[in-house]
Every structure is written in structure tokens, then in C-alpha cells.
Design a protein that fits this description.
alpha/beta; 12 helices; D-Maltodextrin-Binding Protein, domain 2; transmembrane; Insect_Ionotropic_Sensory_Rcpt; receptor; glycoprotein; 375 residues; membrane; seven-stranded mixed β-sheet; 3 domains; two-stranded antiparallel ribbon
Length: 375
């Protein structure tokens, strides 16, 4: 109990907690809050309702026990807080969508909205869902992204791309200059030191040909090509540098793959590609694509490029095996990590469409919600 109050005896403002009657009220409130925080359920039944969700919540032993990431969290809570956990498996597709009056009639949110259960083990904390449920402390943050099967495209001119075009221009200029120098050197030496009948006339094209062989480390210098020692050493040094550089970069280039994403966002996917987006029935993508009226989503919905698939296996089959059409899977990062590569390796592409906390859902006005949060 914070604040101040006017004291008639002291003629000044004093903290409310310093007044005995208010101090007792504050202590009583703290005692009541503390009692709620450390409440012992004494084996009281607590109903947990959900559908089967591999890796997160799985039922076994005739659906009387649960396991998985969220299942084990609630098992630990039941042991720590001393309540009897009663799992209830339901055959529904998802959380459910809000009605026009912001109520819920279908899905898990419809069940908890009607007070037919106490808790939902895993729920994404979208604000409209607060009309049906209170959220526990967050468990993790989830990113909803687009995942695609990487397409392999072979580049027929990859060897040319090892050097940049500026380097290729420098190599060409140096190659022509050195060939010109060797040609001029031979002609000067021939005119000064030898008579014409003792030396064969060699054209500039022949110098280009033999120097190109040296540049590729696949040629030799004939005896009739007379060069100065300085030019010969310079040409050999230049060819060695180019050969070693090309070989080193070639080794690096062939051992790595370059991925060029076909899109960088949902907007560019709709505008610049022919990808269709597939999502799981009852998932966040299914609900969001139906109720959101953002322009890219409306365009994709109008073009019938939003597809709802009943199972995860069918989603991966479409994304990995289709050759005529291209598909991108819209799903949460947590689902991608736990499912892994069912048929092929999928990679996330573009910016996340949304980031949302994942928590457990508690029925509205549950008296001991704080007990569960603090545990």
C-alpha cells in the first residue's frame, strides 16, 4: 500500500504504511497474496485439454497421461503444486477463430471460453485471445517464417566468375603488354645481333599463342623465340601468380554453394515469384490468412496461392516433391525444429512474418493462476 496521508498530529504528510490501521490492512493483503502464491492444491483435479501435437504434447496410456515438451512442464507443475492432472484429448484442428462479437465457439479456445477446462498447454499469445483465456508466463518466443526446398541450378560460366571482371581486364592488359614486349625484344635483337638468314621471322600472333600457353601452365618457349632474361623471368613470374591464384580460388569456389533466395519477404513472394504458400490446417497461418486483410495476403488469397493442408507430412511432400509448381511452407520456427527434414531439407527464406510469445492458457478468473506462474 503506497502513498501518503495527512497527519493531524504531525501537521505533515506521512506514508500510509506508517498508520497502524493501514499497516495492518497492508499486512493482511500481503498474507492473502502469499497464501495464493504458495497454495497447495491437495490433489485437486485440474483439467488440461488439447489435441495431439507431436513433440510438444503426446498422449499415452489410454490418453490418461501426457509427455512431450509442454506435457512434461505440466507434469512437473502437478508434482510441485500437488494437484492431480487430468489430460483430455480432443479431436479438433486448432485453437479456433473469434466470432464477430469476439466470443469463441470452436476449437480449444471455445472449450476454455465455456469453462469446460482449466488449462491449454500451448498457445500463441495473440491479443484477441485474451477474451477467452489468460496467458501464463511465456515459455519461448516463436517466429513464423516461410520455408522452401532449395533449388539446385548449375552455372555454366562459373569458371569465368572466379575472378571479377576488373581482374580479368588487368590480366588481359598485362598479357598483351608482355607479349608485345617479347615481340619487340626479339625483333630488336634480330636486327642488331643476327643476320636475317640465321633467325626465323616470328609474328606477333605466335608470341600471343606461346605466351597464352605459358599463362595456362601448358606451354613451352621454342628456341627460335629469343627473349631477354628480364622479360622471360617477368613473364614466368606473372604466369605463376595467375596460375596459383586461379587454383586457390578454384578450390574455394568448388567447395561452396551459393544460395540466392527467390524472395526476401511475403510481399516479394507474391509480387515477384510464382510460389504458393501452404500452411497446416488449424495453425496460425491458416487462421491469419483467413482473417487478415493486408494487401499481399489479399492478393495471394485472390490468386488462390494460399493452400491449407491437413497434415505435416503432406505439406512436406508438396514442398519437396512437386516439379511443376513451387511451394513455400508457412510455419513456426518451433515446428520446423522439432519436425526436421521429413522428406527434404527446408531452409527459412525472407524475414519472419511475425514474432510471438508461446505460453500456456489458463481459464479466465482462475483463482490460483499466480501460483502456476510463480512455480
Amino acid at each position: 500500500m503506497n502513498g501518503v496521508i495527512w497527519s493531524k498530529t504531525r501537521k505533515t504528510f506521512v506514508p500510509i504504511s506508517s498508520v497502524p490501521i493501514y499497516a495492518r490492512m497492508q499486512q493482511e493483503r500481503l498474507r492473502q497474496n502469499r497464501a495464493l502464491e504458495i497454495h497447495n492444491f491437495q490433489l485437486q483435479n485440474l483439467t488440461l485439454t488439447s489435441f495431439q501435437e507431436p513433440h510438444f504434447l503426446q498422449f499415452y496410456d489410454n490418453n490418461t497421461k501426457i509427455t512431450g515438451l509442454c506435457g512434461e512442464i505440466w507434469n512437473l507443475l502437478s508434482e510441485s503444486l500437488n494437484f492431480t492432472l487430468q489430460p483430455v484429448k480432443v479431436n479438433i484442428d486448432g485453437m479456433g477463430m473469434p466470432e464477430e462479437d469476439l466470443t469463441y465457439k470452436h476449437g480449444l479456445l471455445g472449450i476454455i471460453f465455456r469453462n469446460e477446462t482449466v488449462a491449454i498447454p500451448k498457445i500463441e499469445t495473440f491479443r484477441p485471445r485474451l477474451a477467452a483465456v489468460d496467458f501464463s508466463i511465456p515459455l519461448w518466443i516463436n517466429r513464423n517464417q516461410l520455408y522452401i526446398h532449395r533449388e539446385m541450378i548449375y552455372d555454366n560460366i562459373w569458371m569465368v566468375k572466379i575472378f571479377s571482371w576488373e581482374i580479368w581486364c588487368i590480366i588481359l592488359i598485362m598479357y598483351i603488354l608482355l607479349s608485345l614486349c617479347t615481340f619487340l625484344t626479339q625483333n630488336i635483337r634480330k636486327n642488331i645481333l643476327w643476320s636475317k638468314d640465321k633467325c626465323k621471322n616470328v609474328s606477333f600472333n605466335e608470341h600471343l599463342f606461346h605466351n597464352f600457353g605459358n599463362l595456362c601452365n601448358q606451354g613451352y618457349t621454342p628456341k627460335h623465340l629469343k627473349k631477354s632474361r628480364i622479360l622471360e623471368v617477368s613473364l614466368s613470374f606473372f604466369c605463376s601468380i595467375i596460375y596459383m591464384s586461379f587454383s586457390a580460388l578454384l578450390f574455394i569456389y568448388v567447395t561452396k554453394s551459393i544460395f540466392v533466395p527467390p524472395f526476401d519477404s511475403f510481399e516479394s513472394l507474391v509480387a515477384n515469384t510464382k510460389y504458393s504458400v501452404i500452411s497446416l490446417k488449424g495453425s496460425t497461418g491458416d487462421i491469419g490468412f483467413k482473417i487478415l486483410n493486408l494487401e499481399p495476403i489479399v492478393q495471394a488469397r485472390t490468386a488462390k496461392r494460399l493452400i491449407i493442408i491437413p497434415t505435416i507430412e503432406d505439406m512436406h511432400k508438396m514442398a519437396c516433391s512437386s516439379k511443376k509448381k513451387k511451394y513455400a511452407i508457412f510455419q513456426g520456427e518451433d515446428m520446423h525444429k522439432v519436425n526436421g527434414a521429413i522428406i527434404c531439407h527446408l531452409i527459412n527464406t525472407g524475414k519472419p512474418l511475425s514474432k510471438i510469445w508461446v505460453a500456456s492458457g489458463i481459464v479466465k478468473n482462475f483463482k490460483y493462476k499466480r501460483t502456476i506462474d510463480l512455480e
